[in-house]
Amino acid sequence: MKDKRTYNKLKEHGEDMSHENESKIDTSPIELLTEQYRSDLKQYQEREGLYIRTENQLRSTKQIVVDMAGTVRELHTQNEGLKAEIARLNEEIQLLELQIKK
Predict the structure, then answer these.
(1) Residue 57 CA to chain centroid, in angstroms?
(2) Is 2 within the bounds of a domain?
(3) How many separate domains does the chain show?
(4) How far apart (Å, rounded) are the C-alpha atoms in residues 60 and 56?
(5) Over the Cα atoms of the chain, what is R_g?
């Protein structure tokens, strides 16, 4: 019994009929690397999403702070104006009281 197939015709010489030279590729390392890549990619996407969400919150918070600072400045100006008006009215009251006593 023959262990290896042999060529029957001369033109078959270019073909390897035994298939002993075929190498089998072990795909398990590639599959493991692919799974690791997918896992890393998912983690990266989650971190990127968190970064974008945090950056948007930061921008909106900064805008709120800027708006509130403007409002505080405006209220401070109004407060100073009202204090000056109160002081003026107090002086006017004192003058009127002096006029009434005379």
Answers:
(1) 10
(2) no
(3) 1
(4) 6
(5) 45
5 contact partners, CB below 8 Å, separation of at least 6: 17, 18
Distance CA 81, CA 89 (A): 12
| Residue type for position 86 | I
Structural domain that includes position 36? 27-101
pTM over 0.85: no
4-45: pLDDT as tens digits: 666 565 555 555 555 555 566 677 888 889 999 999 999 999
Q: DSSP assignment of 3-65, as one string? A: SS---SSGGGGGS--S-TTPPPP--HHHHHHHHHHHHHHHHHHHHHHHHHHHHHHHHHHHHHH
User: Stretch 63-92: mean pLDDT, rounded?
Assistant: 96
The verdict on residue 85 lying in a domain is yes
